Amino acid sequence: MIIATERSKRPQDYHGEQRPAAKELFCPFCEGHENKTPPEVLAIRRNGSGPDSPGWSLRVVPNKFPALRHDGDLDMQADGLFESMSGVGHHEVIIESPDHSASLAELSESQVEKTIWAYRERILALRQDERVQYILIFKNHGVAAGASLEHTHSQLVALPIVPIRVQREIDLSRGYFGLRERCVFCDVLEKERSAGQRIVAESDRFVVLSPYAARFPFETWILPKAHVSQFELTPPEEHAELAAVLKKLLAAFNLCLTEPAYNFLLHTAPVADRCEQAFHWHFEVIPRLTRVAGFEWGSGFYINPTTPEMAAESLRVAIETGKERPAEAE
Amino acid sequence: MIIATERSKRPQDYHGEQRPAAKELFCPFCEGHENKTPPEVLAIRRNGSGPDSPGWSLRVVPNKFPALRHDGDLDMQADGLFESMSGVGHHEVIIESPDHSASLAELSESQVEKTIWAYRERILALRQDERVQYILIFKNHGVAAGASLEHTHSQLVALPIVPIRVQREIDLSRGYFGLRERCVFCDVLEKERSAGQRIVAESDRFVVLSPYAARFPFETWILPKAHVSQFELTPPEEHAELAAVLKKLLAAFNLCLTEPAYNFLLHTAPVADRCEQAFHWHFEVIPRLTRVAGFEWGSGFYINPTTPEMAAESLRVAIETGKERPAEAE
């Protein structure tokens, strides 16, 4: 748990989560407002425009309200039962486009490709910081998915420890590898591609699928066919193809599900422990259609009212025809 | 993950989670509508009124749309990489009052006591089913917390396996006990009561506190002072006192936080593995003030913008004065 005092809230600051985000009168991510963010750490610019000025097609900036500080050393404290560590790390925002109103699904493939390129560039830069053990990349799209600003953006958090959930996934993958000497994700890919019923789309190098034990309706994974544990080892030449399948998937969500809020997460091996044989990087994309409530919270089980086969079929039809699956076919 | 086909949803059934629950025109939990639920399995009735008729002050009924079936045997299936088990178990609803509009915080202490009594009665009854390994009791209050009906109710799910999250908490408690030969919850209670700053309220037998590493703002636990691993071993003579502290806490939430949605969860030892020395039952109560988004999902870390000390102080003031903490005292 992270106590983020820079985001400190007193009781009267909570108004319940029902209230939708107000349409922003002023957006700090729009072109021309570059001085409203901390100075950029990466940008794609045309015509030699200078840093923190207009003329960009993508910008990466430190988060103005970071969950973690980027200066200072690791500072472990133990007080009997309780342990704490200072929240050192990096928290950055990838502004995916200067266009305020377009969502990632609506950007051009080449613009989505730039976003993927930026993820890799920032990972390569931040892994040089020796305090960084893990780099988490995610996107919250829509109020229901936790987005606080409407303007399309992703986030990167570089952490001084490997998060517990990541470690657990790696431990499970290692356990499988220990038994079979094969990567569990490679085995899943092989099995799913031969069965076909949970496959959403396939390109030369990537597979989009509804996982067998999908926890959420329309939960979808994107995996490279080649075994690679760290995302940054997938070369930029493959980014255009990855951008195309990601854009296709997000567009299919919009067709099947009336523009749902969603989260996506990059699952990749840690900076130091590369876990080369056992892990396989992938994106997990989750539309926010059901609420996590007491049952899920208490058990860690998820009740999914839509089978992954049904979700995959709907998404396949949407991708192939550019249309929602006709209701009479049910 | 549970695929619940009795709750099956096609893509067009999702309308996004933003839409608030429609005010029900007809409530199946109201007095006089007893034939709209499956037959009751427990009720508190006056004047010898018959089952499934008016005249009750509390009813327990099977969930009409259960996450699990209660007939059938355990049926494990393995298909290469993938394993599945049929969803056998019980899913019940505790209707806490015939009053449609009162929340649990607004019910009388004696009515809250009846609810706690019903939890224990149903645990004692369902643990007789030899397929049942764990009984999970929880409450979703408010749309943001996942409640689908407004009429105040809790839920009980009896499961054929010990859920992963419960097992993990028990493993951690056992690990601590193995090192120190003491219950970790007893040690936390002792430490917190001597420090005082995270204590919200205390009665003869119960302590209400904001945990040291609170994941959510205003996350609060209720623990018995006496070491008891299973909730059902706490005798009915103590229910009135537990009801009083629970009602106090929920009323304080309403004062501090303008009637927040919340979840509560009973953490108790499994049916067979009683974990008598290492575990200590408790309630976890979580107002839904922040959204779980990509960062939390990816890392298992939670960003909490309110310190537990600040939350405890606000709740203490609300309980002591019956008023919100004055803003000028900040």
CATH-wise, what's the superfamily of the largest domain in chain A? HIT-like
Tell me the Rg of chain A in angstroms. Answer: 20 Å
Second CATH tier, the architecture of the largest domain in chain A:
2-Layer Sandwich
Mean model confidence by pLDDT of chain A: 87
The CATH class of the largest domain in chain A is identified as: Alpha Beta
Shape of chain A: globular
Oligomer: homodimer
Percent range of helical residues of chain A: 25-40%
Q: Unreliable stretches of chain A, pLDDT < 50, 5 or more residues?
A: 16-22
Q: Helical region count of chain A?
A: 6
Spatial strand arrangement across the major sheet of chain A: 2-3-6-8-7-12-13-11-10-9
List the chains of the largest interface with their residue counts.
A-B, 87 and 87 residues
Tell me the span between the first and last alpha carbons of chain A: 45 Å
Order of helices and strands of chain A: EEEEEEHEEHHEEEHEEHEH
Structure overview:
The structure is a homodimer of 330-residue chains. With 330 residues, the first copy, chain A, is of the alpha+beta class. The first copy, chain A, has 2 domains: 114 residues, HIT family, subunit A; 166 residues, HIT-like (HIT family, subunit A, 2-Layer Sandwich), CATH 3.30.428. In chain A, 26% of the residues lie in helices and 21% in strands. In chain A, the strands form 2 sheets. Chain A has a 10-stranded antiparallel β-sheet with strand order 2-3-6-8-7-12-13-11-10-9, with helices on both faces. A two-stranded antiparallel sheet of chain A has the order 4-5. In chain A, β9 and β10 form a beta hairpin. The termini of chain A are far apart. About 2% of the residues of chain A have low confidence. At the A-B interface, β1, β7, β8, α2 and α3 of A face β1, β7, β8, α2 and α3 of B. β14 of chain A pairs parallel with β1 of chain B, so a sheet runs across the interface.
